[in-house]
Amino acid sequence: MMSHHSPYAPPVCLPNLEIQQAAQARQDQLTKPRGSLGRLEDIAIRFAGWQGKVCPDVLQPAISVFAADHGVSVEGVSAYPAEITALMVSNFLAGGAAINVLARQLNAPLQVIDVGVAHPIPQPAVCQHELIHARIRHGTANLRHQAAMSVNEALSAIHLGREAANRQIDLGANILLAGEMGIANTCASAALICYFTGHAPAEVVGRGTGIDDVTWQHKQQVVHDALARVAIQPPLSPLAALAELGGLEIAAMVGFYLGAAQAKTPVLLDGFIATAAAIVANAMEPNSKYWWLASHRSQEQGHQLALNFLDLEPLLDLGLRLGEGSGAAICVPMLNLAIQLHNQMATFDQAAIPQS
Question: Is residue 184 exposed (0-12), middle (13-18) or buried (19+ Cβ within 10 Å)?
């Protein structure tokens, strides 16, 4: 058997603290008042620890977008029908979605992975990206009334996510971003966040794609019912909770985050759904969160509570709620600027400026 710590993989190492201290010492010698670049200094120091280099390499991001459908969509918790998932995957393949534009701007490879789309995916006239076919089942079951998937299906999705992370790392990526597509996935994400953090549905359930007040109240009730359904069972392992309340693309993101941390590669977390997956990954392997950076605070109301639970401070708040990995992608240029400031600024000695 593998370790009791996490049944899914080897343990996660911590970032190199000695190198971080050396990077901090360098920051303190740069030609500026100490600490005057604020969080940009912390970012550079963290990447030094992650890469094991006092002056870290510029970031080469890679993005994997996982797509799957949710049985709970029959409850009418989204502003869109389930068929939209397949159509949006087609849009990803054609290069027309927000994450495609951002990936092109970042020169980042983009993988599109079908983990459990329920409907046929139309083949676009011109394909910019190949679809990775890894469908475990045609969407999950309705988590309000039954387990979303079996434990083995959740494990299969975790394995697929880990493979996706390793593929991107093998191609030269040194920071990973995960995106998702799945109608009703904020409902599953809210259920997971409530389960793991203990917050009530009224605190965590948001408006997702932009639902009205009546639908929002109904969505809270659906999550409440799902939580009540699992509450009468014996305490669940993190994997069992993921199978009961999660989604196939969320489970794949769990594997993606675990695989990245095990490969000592930092992850830039996206919004609400990404953070729900991160909470599950953290429950399975508590050291994995030391390899994560929170990109932004989503407009989804429970996102800040989820970030607080992981003790993560988001870099930006731009009122985003798109998903797809878009919020994470937007942060990459800022991270590279932080690294270049750290690497290229002169020290006081180099500039022959006396330190006060």
Answer: buried
Is 32 within a domain?
no
pLDDT, averaged per 10 consecutive residues of the chain (356 residues), comes to 47 94 98 97 98 98 98 96 97 98 98 98 95 98 98 97 98 98 97 98 93 95 98 95 98 98 98 98 96 96 97 96 96 98 97 89
Smallest Cα–Cα separation from 114: which of 96, 88, 79, 94?
88
Helices 151-170 and 238-245, packing angle to 10 deg: 100
Closest CA to 223 of 243, 199, 239: 199
**Is the pTM of the predicted complex or chain greater than 0.85?**
yes
**Residue 149: which domain range?**
61-334
CA atoms within 13 A on the CB side of 337: 8
CATH assignment at residue 221: 3.40.50.10210
240 is a domain residue: yes
In a domain? residue 79: yes
Give the active site residues: 324
Q: Burial, 207: exposed, middle or buried (Cβ in 10 Å; 0-12, 13-18, 19+)? A: middle
Burial class (CB in 10 A: 0-12, 13-18, 19+), 133: exposed
- The tally of domains found in the chain comes to 1
Q: How far apart are CA 261 and CA 241, in angstroms?
A: 21
The three-class DSSP label of residue 326 is helix
Assess if residue 24 is contained within a domain.
Answer: no
Q: What are phi and psi of 338, to 5 degrees?
A: -60, -45
Q: In what order do the strands lie in the sheet with 175-181?
A: 131-133, 110-116, 61-68, 175-181, 267-269, 292-294
Of 121, 155, 123, the closest CA to residue 136 belongs to: 155
